[in-house]
Amino acid sequence: MELYHSLPFFSYLLGKCFKKGLVGKGLLLLMKLGFTVGVSFALCWLPFCTDVEQILQVFRRLFPVDRGLFEDKVANVWCTVSVFFKVKAVLSAETQLKLSFALTFLTALPSCIKLTLQPSIKGFKYALVSCALSFFLFSFQVHEKSILLVSIPVCLVIHEIPFMSTWFLLVSTFSMLPLLLKDGLLLPYIVTTLAFLTVCATSFSIFENTSEDDMQLKLFPTSIRRCIPWFRTFSKVIRSSFLVSITLMGILTLMSATLDPPQRLPDLFPLAVSAVSCLHFLFFLLYFNVIAIWESRDSRNQKKTN
């Protein structure tokens, strides 16, 4: 969890330091930040520094390279791509590791750069979601339950973007369906999902708050329309996509719970759940990066209007 969310924290604090200037208060804050990080790191590692083997064991736990790029049917890019391109068979372990690191770093970078240049609490929360999603989708050896580390910061913005946050949280729970079925939790999953959707529909009026303003996309679609005129129906497309998404998740849940997969394709349903969830998460990664990058522009325009 620390690795998922440390980049936005560092970017926000670094941006605050630069905002105050590198001479005087800014430099002092930067030194305090570096000292605090160094001391915290040393304290965390102190219990393991008595023996070299213990240090190596911690490294193996933190970076489980020997276990391969992914296990089971996790809803990330590597599992989905492996349906068409056997990454593990074609690429060496070293290449897989480098590729995973590069894609994770590059997809997490935009929101962190924006947060460093223009630090704000709102942008910080969006960057938390974007970075956590980047790590889940592209990093090495991700567990299915790691999507919960993305869901936590999404809960922080559910009052700001209720429709998109509710949609994401529904998909994140659905992505763990194979695990839930394995543990015999189908009924609790269905009941809690329907209850959550009902609460969000009544408390946040999610089906009424689907305009571009409600989704924090006031300026971005305006810019896109200059090149793509049909983008005027963006809100309608999003609402229709949500209905299709809910229907598809319901059908896959029903099929996974009631049907036996073909003998030649024993992992058909778990893989379908993972692939569908992964496509959703890629869409949400793009969405949260867009609102993270455009957030400060909206804020400045609102101030000018006021």
UniProtKB/TrEMBL annotation:
It is found in: Endoplasmic reticulum membrane. It comes from the Eukaryota. Its main location: endoplasmic reticulum. Its EC number is 2.4.1.-. It catalyses: an alpha-D-Man-(1->2)-alpha-D-Man-(1->2)-alpha-D-Man-(1->3)-[alpha-D-Man-(1->2)-alpha-D-Man-(1->3)-[alpha-D-Man-(1->2)-alpha-D-Man-(1->6)]-alpha-D-Man-(1->6)]-beta-D-Man-(1->4)-beta-D-GlcNAc-(1->4)-alpha-D-GlcNAc-diphospho-di-trans,poly-cis-dolichol + a di-trans,poly-cis-dolichyl beta-D-glucosyl phosphate = an alpha-D-Glc-(1->3)-alpha-D-Man-(1->2)-alpha-D-Man-(1->2)-alpha-D-Man-(1->3)-[alpha-D-Man-(1->2)-alpha-D-Man-(1->3)-[alpha-D-Man-(1->2)-alpha-D-Man-(1->6)]-alpha-D-Man-(1->6)]-beta-D-Man-(1->4)-beta-D-GlcNAc-(1->4)-alpha-D-GlcNAc-diphospho-di-trans,poly-cis-dolichol + a di-trans,poly-cis-dolichyl phosphate + H(+). One of its GO terms (cellular component) is endoplasmic reticulum membrane. Dolichyl pyrophosphate Man9GlcNAc2 alpha-1,3-glucosyltransferase that operates in the biosynthetic pathway of dolichol-linked oligosaccharides, the glycan precursors employed in protein asparagine (N)-glycosylation. The assembly of dolichol-linked oligosaccharides begins on the cytosolic side of the endoplasmic reticulum membrane and finishes in its lumen. The sequential addition of sugars to dolichol pyrophosphate produces dolichol-linked oligosaccharides containing fourteen sugars, including two GlcNAcs, nine mannoses and three glucoses. This is Alpha-1,3-glucosyltransferase.
